[in-house]
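tool=predict chain=A
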Amino acid sequence: QVQLVESGGGLVQAGGSLRLSCSAPGRIFSISTMDWYRQAPGKQRELVASIKSGDSTDYADSVKGRLTISRDNAKNTVYLQMNSLKAEDTSVYYCHVVWGLPVKRHGWGQGTQVTVSS
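tool=predict ok
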């Protein structure tokens, strides 16, 4: 089991910005996809943003134009820059990585709370 370390959550007013970071242990290798998910109380976990090894990205429609995912492969780190935050962005955010060859493995962060006050 790989434990990822997240940071950067907190309380921000609507319209504000936050930057989340997630670092994976140096011992993991061949990281393909790095994602951010979120889960609000009473709701299912949803995929927010994804970045593949070639740096192609995908976003949920609800966050396009406001959230940006990026990665630093040398540091095994993925970031989520969140701008123009809305109250509905309030959730626990989890990072997720797919790594390893030939068998693909999964790792999750512990979750970081993002609260946007309106």
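The radius of gyration is 14 Å. Residues 58 and 64 are 9 Å apart (CA to CA).
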